[in-house]
Amino acid sequence: MKKWIGIIITIVLMAGAGYWAYEKYKPQPEAPMEVPPPITFDVTQETMTQTILVKGKSVYTEQADVFAPYASSIKQWHVKNGDQVKKGEILFTLDTSALQTELDQMQSDLDKAKLDVEMNQISIDQAGMTETLGVTEEERKKAFADRESKRLANELSQKALVLKEKEIRKKQDVMSKAVVYAASSGVFQMNEGDSKTRAVTEGQLIGTITNTGKMKFLTIVGEEEMFRLKAGMPVQVRMSAQKDLKFTGTVSKVSKFARKSSDTDLKQASQFDVVIDLKPDARMYGGVSLEGDIETMRKDKVTAVSSLAIMRDQPEPYVLLDKGNGQTEQVNVKTGIESGDKTEIVSGLKPGDVVVIP
């Protein structure tokens, strides 16, 4: 009897375990799929622009080089490296002692030459007075030849005097440039380390005056972009390293000649230089990398919609106009310019309409 009771209990336990396993692992009915709501886009009225992205460098527009007017040494500096100077301000003074010595010697030589000319003239006059006193014809001819020789020599000496006087005036003019003034306003930067006794040669570059308030943005564009650009177009500018700093500028020049590097490689598309004048801004520095968006077209009060909403799988582009209550209508549209993720709608829609993507 106990044996049968054990068998019955075992059967009951096995049946319970089987039922539990079935309930746990039986296939679950699939939940009904939810249909996602359609994506909608509003038709708006806005200003649309087209731009060309360019990259380049900032450079200073006005820079004036300062040269030594003659060979000497710098006697005195009136400014320091990096000083802000004004037009007409004294930069430095050259030593004039050697030049003054030359002038004194030249003046002495001139005075002596003038005295020689005067003495020669007296000698010529005396020779003319005594020429008729010669005893013989031969002596008179000899005296005449001697007088003419002195006269010609004196004329040459007088011409030499004129040249000496010109040389002196020229030297005086050079010495008057011993004090060197700033030709423009800006920051003065020395070409190299300087001292009061620094020796310089004539025409040597001493430094540069830079007007930090006037800068330009130099960039290059390809053939396609070049034909879309013209002077006067506005530009939104930013530093490549500081994109949060915004600047503005205007296209001032579009080169009509391709860069020379493009001429040697026929497989390479030509590139053209573009100059953008930057609006003065104390935050801008020369020599930094810049990016700019040149506005090539602007249209106000444009009817626009997201480009994603426009279907192009038929001969004419179309949209699905939301009619409400889940109803849509296919509407053919005529498109215009594209800007970013928006497309101009010339006809077919009006501001306030809603289009959908099923």
Automatic annotation (TrEMBL):
<dbReference type="GO" id="GO:1990281">
    <property type="term" value="C:efflux pump complex"/>
</dbReference>
<dbReference type="GO" id="GO:0015562">
    <property type="term" value="F:efflux transmembrane transporter activity"/>
</dbReference>
<feature type="domain" description="Multidrug resistance protein MdtA-like C-terminal permuted SH3">
    <location>
        <begin position="317"/>
        <end position="357"/>
    </location>
</feature>
<dbReference type="InterPro" id="IPR006143">
    <property type="entry name" value="RND_pump_MFP"/>
</dbReference>
<dbReference type="Pfam" id="PF25967">
    <property type="entry name" value="RND-MFP_C"/>
</dbReference>
<keyword id="KW-0472">Membrane</keyword>
<feature type="coiled-coil region">
    <location>
        <begin position="96"/>
        <end position="155"/>
    </location>
</feature>
<feature type="transmembrane region" description="Helical">
    <location>
        <begin position="5"/>
        <end position="22"/>
    </location>
</feature>
<keyword id="KW-0812">Transmembrane</keyword>
<comment type="similarity">
    <text>Belongs to the membrane fusion protein (MFP) (TC 8.A.1) family.</text>
</comment>
<keyword id="KW-0175">Coiled coil</keyword>
<dbReference type="InterPro" id="IPR058627">
    <property type="entry name" value="MdtA-like_C"/>
</dbReference>
<protein>
    <submittedName>
        <fullName>Efflux RND transporter periplasmic adaptor subunit</fullName>
    </submittedName>
</protein>
<keyword id="KW-1133">Transmembrane helix</keyword>
